[in-house]
């Protein structure tokens, strides 16, 4: 599989939007998503938060049908890796990397077929919020999970540096 070669660029259909931190004497507040800023197809149907320990990577994964809506707001900074693996995409085989989180609070929508992973590059546990447009394992958790996992692929083209 290592013969797959990616070039760096911006991936079609991935949206990266800054999140505004409303800070005051009490602390801060960040809006995570609003239906008036999303197309209906991307309206979240569930949300979860995960903690990732320093130096740890989650992914690479892709979804067949689900769009992920990640919000990286801290604590912690992450290196986010994206690889366009959609044969019908104008940016097929484009890879994109960015630093997100405490130092760059953003939300990122990742369409199906875009392989993704993130690594906590901080020296403390980091949090990531996700509000996807599909239910994990379907209604009542009775369906197959919509994900293709590449973590254990030998000679993987999805390189985490
Ligand atoms: C996503 C999810 C997971 N789980 C359970 C299943 C496992 O027992 C446990 C950890 O889930 P998983 O191993 O799938 O987590 P990661 O492999 O780190 O995947 C995560 O990070 C990568 C980068 C992603 O893109 C995924 O969307 C995100 O789930 O939580 C649930 O019960 N509900 C959920 O919605």
From TrEMBL:
One of its GO terms (biological process) is polysaccharide biosynthetic process. The keyword Secreted does not apply. Keywords: Isomerase. InterPro entries: RmlC-like (IPR000888), RmlC-like_jellyroll (IPR014710), RmlC_Cupin_sf (IPR011051). GO terms for molecular function: dTDP-4-dehydrorhamnose 3,5-epimerase activity. GO terms for cellular component: cytosol. It catalyses: dTDP-4-dehydro-6-deoxy-alpha-D-glucose = dTDP-4-dehydro-beta-L-rhamnose. It is an enzyme of class 5 (isomerase). Pfam families: dTDP_sugar_isom. Gene3D superfamilies: Jelly Rolls. The keyword Isomerase applies. Its EC number is 5.1.3.13. The record marks 136 as: Participates in a stacking interaction with the thymidine ring of dTDP-4-oxo-6-deoxyglucose. It comes from the Bacteria. Catalyzes the epimerization of the C3' and C5'positions of dTDP-6-deoxy-D-xylo-4-hexulose, forming dTDP-6-deoxy-L-lyxo-4-hexulose. PANTHER family: DTDP-6-DEOXY-D-GLUCOSE-3,5 EPIMERASE, THYMIDINE DIPHOSPHO-4-KETO-RHAMNOSE 3,5-EPIMERASE. This is dTDP-4-dehydrorhamnose 3,5-epimerase.
